[in-house]
Design a protein that fits this description.
- The complex is a heterodimer.
- Chain A is mostly beta strands.
- In chain A, 0% of the residues lie in helices and 53% in strands.
- Chain A contains no helices and eleven strands.
- Chain A has strands at residues 5-7, 10-13, 19-24, 31-38, 42-50, 53-57, 64-68, 74-78, 87-94, 104-105, 109-113.
- In chain A, a hairpin with a 2-residue loop joins strand 5 (42-50) and strand 6 (53-57).
- Chain B is 0% helix and 50% strand.
- Chain B has strands at 3-5, 10-14, 19-21, 24-26, 33-39, 46-52, 60-61, 64-69, 74-79, 88-95, 104-105, 109-114.
- In chain B, strands 2, 5, 6, 10, 11 and 12 form a six-stranded mixed β-sheet that branches. Chain B has a four-stranded antiparallel β-sheet with strand order 3-9-8-7, with no helix packed on it.
- The radius of gyration of chain B is 14 Å and the shape is globular.
- The chains are: A mainly beta, B mainly beta.
- The A-B interface holds A 33, 35, 42-45, 48, 55-56, 58, 88, 90, 92, 97-108 and B 32-33, 37, 42-47, 50, 52, 91, 95-97, 99-108.
Chain lengths: 114, 115
């Protein structure tokens, strides 16, 4: 069974631009979560989607948004990029939303904002 | 909000030896899950082991085991017979319904394995 895939793997943008990251979950998984990883703040939860609905959102500004499609694939969008948005963005999928559901992580997208 | 603390930024262990990574957490909940994740240089997060708070028995997965002390809010990871492939960042994480089931991670411990 294929794992979680994220595209692109690397991205370079300039301040003020916007970016869209994509995540394809493991087949059959309906929940997708996004995390931001930076050296300073560590791993922080962005949001979770289940069956095309946002179920949970972390403490990030409205510039960060996401969505989930009917095939469970998810995208996250960051508008008006800032230097501090440079990070590794990790996507994780699971069968459901309960705490007992193991989250399987993708390889991440490395975003660099210049 | 729940907090997860890993007090050891770096640890070192010799091959074949045993090492213990520490993790403490703060919560007022009684029902939750705790996890240890491994992140090698490839950056792929891999679940190492998990513990349900309602289970008194410590979880074990091959060479990996935990010491779960619920009253002390402590959740340490023991790696036995360390191998070079164990070198990675290790993150302790907490999850429960009040956090919307989002994983709440500690800052991580970098484990170096020396031959």
């Amino acid at each position: 069974k294929a794992g979680v895939t994220q595209t692109p793997r690397y991205l370079i943008k300039t301040r003020g631009q916007q970016v869209t990251l994509s995540c394809s979950p493991i087949s059959g998984h309906r929940s997708v979560s996004w995390y931001q990883q930076t050296p300073g703040q560590g791993l922080q939860f962005l949001f979770e989607y289940f069956s095309e609905t946002q179920r949970n959102k972390g403490n990030f500004p409205g510039r960060f948004s996401g969505r989930q499609f009917s095939n469970s694939r998810s995208e996250m969008n960051v508008s008006t990029l800032e230097l501090g948005d440079s990070a590794l963005y990790l996507c994780a999928s699971s069968l459901g939303t309960g705490a007992y559901n193991e989250q399987f992580f993708g390889p991440g997208t490395r975003l660099t904002v210049l | 909000a729940q907090t997860v603390t890993q007090s050891q930024p770096e640890m070192s262990v010799q091959e074949a030896e045993t090492v213990t990574l520490s993790c403490t957490y703060d919560t007022s909940e009684s029902d939750y899950y705790l996890f240890w994740y491994k992140q090698p240089p490839s950056r792929q997060m891999i679940l190492v082991i998990r513990q349900e708070a309602y289970k008194q028995q410590n979880a074990t997965e091959n060479r990996f085991s935990v010491n779960f002390q619920k009253a002390a809010k402590s959740f340490s990871l023991k790696i036995s017979d360390s191998q070079l492939g164990d070198a990675a960042m290790y993150f302790c994480a907490y999850r429960n319904s009040n956090s919307g089931y989002a994983l709440n991670f500690g800052k991580g411990t970098s484990l170096l394995v020396t031959p």
